[in-house]
Amino acid sequence: MFERLREDINCVFERDPAARNALEVLTTYPGVHAVLFHRLAHRLWNANFKWLGRMLAGLSRWFTGIEIHPAASIGRRFFIDHGMGVVIGETAEIGDDCTLYHGVTLGGTSWQKGKRHPTLGNNVVVGAGAKVLGPITLGDGARVGSNAVVVKDVAAGNTIIGVPGHVVKKRTERDERRKAFAARIGFDAYGQAPDMPDPIENAINALLDHIHVMDQQMERMCQALKSMGVEVTPGKLPDLESCVIDCEADEKVKSEQ
Questions:
Q1: What's the structural domain count of the chain?
Q2: Rg of the chain (C-alpha set)
Q3: Which of 8, 87, 103, 251 has its Cα between 20 and 30 A from that of 202?
Q4: Based on the domain organization, do 239 and 118 belong to the same domain?
């Protein structure tokens, strides 16, 4: 019990820079209060004290503005930021390390009994005002943009925006290769907008692909030279940050002249 409480408090510090200390989190964060209420209400529900579970859930809603059905299954380190207006339905399932913002609805689209609410994998983030509806699944690491309406399954790692929700960009093998190569040469081509189409990013990606091919060709040439007995000393790649500083210094000198 106390281990779970410690986890619930510590995860706030990881995801909310406004959190200052444990006492503040425990006493002033409605998202934490709602989770603590739900842990007890869920136990009562599973122990067949369903009326008590519903009463406690109703009391929690009255105090926090967050409605969580006591039958909903919630994993570890779950954080609701701000929290007002969040609704989590009866058959919803939420994995570990998930984050919901205010106004989020994990709702159903049917009046039939049975599974009718969403399932969230681990490390899922749902933005403010988003609606995730029906017995769909959001894979591990999925991201839902603010005010999006999601009614279909979301694959792991994808980002969904809009009404109806659609994938912003699917991460491909080429994207992973670009990211790895950019990291190797000391450059972050994805630092500004990793999921949004951008002409400058496209140009940089094309350059990275070109450099990647040239780098492979150079490696093959070096291997061929070594097989012929020629000693090849690999050069050290320049630090791009220092190059940027040198360029800025040159521009400053030119402007002063």
A1: 2
A2: 25
A3: 251
A4: no
In 10 A of CB 106, how many CB atoms? 28
Tokens of 66: 């967050």
Q: What is the pLDDT along the chain (257 residues), one digit of tens a residue?
A: 677 888 888 888 888 888 889 899 889 999 999 999 999 999 999 999 999 999 999 999 999 999 999 999 999 999 999 889 999 999 999 999 999 999 999 999 888 888 999 999 999 999 999 999 999 999 998 999 999 999 999 988 888 988 888 888 666 666 666 666 565 555 544 333 445 455 566 667 677 777 777 888 888 888 888 888 887 776 666 555 554 455 555 555 555 55
Q: Hey, what are 103's tokens? A: 């106004």
Query: Domain span at residue 216?
Result: 173-256
**Joined tokens for residue 245:** 């500083």
**Residue 86 shares a structural domain with residue 211:** no
Token pair of 53 as six digits: 């579970």
Question: Model-level pTM greater than 0.70?
Answer: no
Same-domain check for residues 22 and 84: yes
